Amino acid sequence: MTIAFDPIDLSGTRLANRIAMAPMTRSRAFGPGLTPTDSTVEYYAQRASAGLIITEGIQPSAIGQGYPDTPGLHSAGQVAAWREVTDAVHANGGRIFAQLMHAGRIGHPVLWPDQELLSVAPSPVAATGQLYTREGPKDFLPPRELTGAEVRATIGDFAAAARNAVEAGFDGVELHGANGYLIHQFLSTNTNRRTDEWGGPVENRIRFALEVTRAVAAEIGAARTGLRLSPGNPYNDMAETDTEATYLTLVKELEPLGIGYLHITENVPDFRDLTLALRKQFSGTFVLNPSTEGFTDHGALPLIEDGTADVLAFGALFLANPDLPARLRTAGPYNTPDTATFFGGGDTGYTDYPALTG
Length: 358
What we know:
Number of helices: 11
Oligomer: single chain
Structural class: alpha/beta
């Protein structure tokens, strides 16, 4: 029997198994002030058999919002609403971390109460493509470059949101440094063209990721802090030129902080060698959301057996299978995810996927 279903200690947080629910945007924060609803409570409670739930991306500030109807953790109302989610997950025996996600240049003024605002980023470089909004597709606009003081203030926003997460009952937070959002934008040469202390050589481009992680760890404890990275991922018009050097240097600098876990998402299959190098360099718990080539279901479990990862994170499969650990244990069967209901909408494709019976 695989050790995937054995408990594991996550820097002091006991996980019932080594299967995590990966963060997935659902765009259903329909409560007042972009808050979770009763359906959100049910959605996460249904999936509490995961060793660890990592929530959808939650913006640490209003300007950090990148998509319609995504939740925040920067107001008292948001904290109170998330408390209902965490209480329900804990009542069902689960553990849950809040993923803090600042979208940076991936956003649009129609999302914000003050539509005179522009999105913010390391440099004023617009992403190619369009963003889906309630008003239809919108071209990405050139963002406003953050000043040095604003960079520091944004780091403070992450720390404040982490404090709010703990107040809301989360077991910890994951910082979203992947998939082309703000932390990733600082890491990549095509989105970070700064010439100050936050840009230029690798040592400067990793500074924002490190300072955010340090600030959050200082606020809530390193053991309750995780970081997600996606080396080489071109999503959201990213184009890294020195991927290996960037991530190996970043993880080397992260190591002394003693954070709870490092979460690598392999959007690009060719980077498995780098995954293994990062795994070797990081002594803490290593969470892997593996490449989709052959590793989308129980076929991924050997990655725990062979030591590639300590914990495996599943995305769409967990969305469609609220009792995924039980299904992985029996090698299926699996419900098929309905892509048409991934974002927005009601409970269909959200809380109505059936669990196994008998």
